[in-house]
Design brief:
By secondary structure, the protein is of the alpha+beta class. It has 17 helices and 25 strands. The strands form seven sheets. It has a seven-stranded antiparallel β-sheet with strand order 4-3-5-2-11-10-12. A hairpin with a 4-residue loop joins strand 8 and strand 9. Helix 5 packs across helix 6 and helix 9 packs across helix 10. The chain is globular and about 70 Å long. The relative contact order is 0.12. Bound molecules: iron/sulfur cluster.
């Protein structure tokens, strides 16, 4: 069996560097720091000013981006991508960065996000005779660039993206330039850093910390940065739109040591926990996080409520891909591969269990059962975001709406289903206040169904 925790999954992490003698090594380290955003495959394209060099592979960054491969990635600039495989195609052809040669020369691209209307565009292109290598929406952008008359690759990129709607943080590499673009709503994060004289871009600032780069600023929604031998040039070439940054980045996707949308993720989660305690107090003896993403919120809950924090569930980070379930079935086998309770801390106690989100409810049920079997007298589940009731179309792997437990059951029914004495979700207002993002500038569609764009092929009602 293969077991993974029941969560929404970010689909990609991206990193780029321009003007550093060790570009491919820095790209490898940057991706390593972003591994939590995608564990299925990774790749780097580098440039030595004349040509592009590509490496792509399925597997973890530390396993596949080995020294011999990095040595072949020549040059002082690079873009890199780590990918979480969604259901469907999972072959080397899907692994980014993609690299092509067209009328504008060599161009490579990597993408964090999703283009909801790419499927329709792909059908049109195929009818016109276009040949696709992958099933990825990102490839439609490359086809657009290849077909766009322009004086340069940069101008073609700009013209194509002016016609694209959707969620994209994109990095392009040509032999002479690195281009970083964030869509006008800014769904997915993208930050700019500096390392001595070199420029770096990344999904999250934790990638800069590892390589000792200085975090300069967020790349703004709708901003296109061109970095070449003449320096860094910012432009805003797209129609202005109301920003809609992904609030789930602060709830779960991003690392707590990152700064996303100009805010510390750890601080947001801590405040969410405090607000959760105000909104849903509980009579209990200990506050226990579901590791790892529930930890900061649980500390916040504990500090607000005065109930002692206990790290009473331990996570095994080294779970491989597949296990054969013992024939004499072990209860909660799947969840125990990843999580195990410390019985001494739990036995005889009333437990507030803090998790960041509940998706299908399958894991929550097993965790509650596990905590009860460890001797908890009561389990009060607290969730540091509102009930997730809608699918995401902006670069996050989510199940269909019918599979989202909060779209199908009331909170009382969910509490009963997972076997908890009580259940409390953080309110939308409480979450947004904790993150410090104006609700008008945030995407909260997976909680409200208010999608900031038109959505093609909506999953479920
Ligand atoms: Fe993020 Fe949810 Fe919006 Fe998707 S729908 S971008 S997960 S807030």
């Amino acid at each position: 069996m293969h077991f993974s925790l029941d969560k929404f999954h970010e689909e990609c992490g991206i990193f780029g560097v321009f003007g550093h003698a060790e570009a491919s090594t820095l790209a490898q380290l940057g991706l390593f720091a972003l591994q939590h955003r995608g564990q299925e495959a990774c790749g780097i394209v580098s440039s030595d000013g004349e040509s592009l060099y590509q490496f792509r592979s399925q597997g973890l960054v530390a396993d596949v981006l080995v020294e011999d491969e990095l040595r072949k990635l020549k040059g002082s600039s690079a873009i890199a991508h780590t990918r979480y495989s969604t259901t469907g195609a999972n072959t080397i052809k899907e692994v980014q960065p993609f690299a092509v040669t067209c009328q504008h020369g060599e161009i490579a691209v990597c993408h964090n996000g999703n283009l909801p209307f790419a499927a329709a565009r792909r059908v049109e292109l195929e009818k016109e005779g276009a040949i696709f290598q992958s099933t990825s929406d990102t490839e439609t952008i490359l086809h657009g660039i290849a077909r766009t008359p322009a004086r340069s690759a940069i101008e073609a990129i700009e013209k194509v993206l002016q016609k694209v709607d959707g969620a994209y943080s994109l990095l392009f590499l040509t032999p002479k330039a690195l281009v970083a673009v964030r869509d006008p709503r800014g769904f997915r994060p993208l930050v700019l850093g500096k390392l001595n004289g070199a420029w770096c871009v990344a999904s999250e600032t934790c990638a800069f910390d590892l390589i000792d780069a200085h975090y300069e600023r967020e790349i703004e929604p709708g901003e296109m940065l061109v970095i070449d031998e003449n320096g860094i040039h910012s432009r805003m070439p797209f129609e202005k739109k109301q920003p809609a940054v992904c609030t789930f980045e602060h709830v779960y996707f991003s690392r707590p040591d990152s700064i996303i949308f100009g805010r510390s993720v750890n601080e947001s989660r801590h405040k969410m926990g405090k607000q959760l305690a105000r909104e849903h107090p509980a009579e209990a003896d200990i506050v226990v996080p579901v590791p790892d993403s529930g930890v900061a919120a649980a500390i916040g809950y504990s500090s607000q409520s005065g109930i002692p924090f206990r790290q009473a569930i331990i996570r095994n980070h080294y779970v491989g891909r597949t296990f054969i379930e013992p024939q004499q079935s072990i209860r909660s086998f799947g969840v125990r591969l990843k999580l195990n309770p410390i019985k001494d801390l739990i036995f005889g106690r009333r437990v507030v269990l803090v998790d960041d989100s509940i998706v299908r409810g399958t894991t929550s049920k097993k965790i509650v059962q596990m905590v009860r079997e460890a001797g908890a007298t009561e389990v009060h589940m607290r969730v540091s975001c509102p009930p997730t009731t809608y699918s995401c179309y902006y670069g996050v792997d989510t199940p269909d709406r019918e599979q989202l437990i909060a779209a199908q059951m009331s909170e009382t029914e969910i509490a009963e289903h997972i076997g908890a004495e009580s259940l409390g979700y953080l309110s939308l207002e409480g979450m947004l206040e904790a993150i410090g993002i104006d609700s008008a500038a945030a995407c909260s569609a997976c909680w409200t169904g208010a999608y900031p764009t038109l959505v093609a092929n909506r999953k479920g009602a």
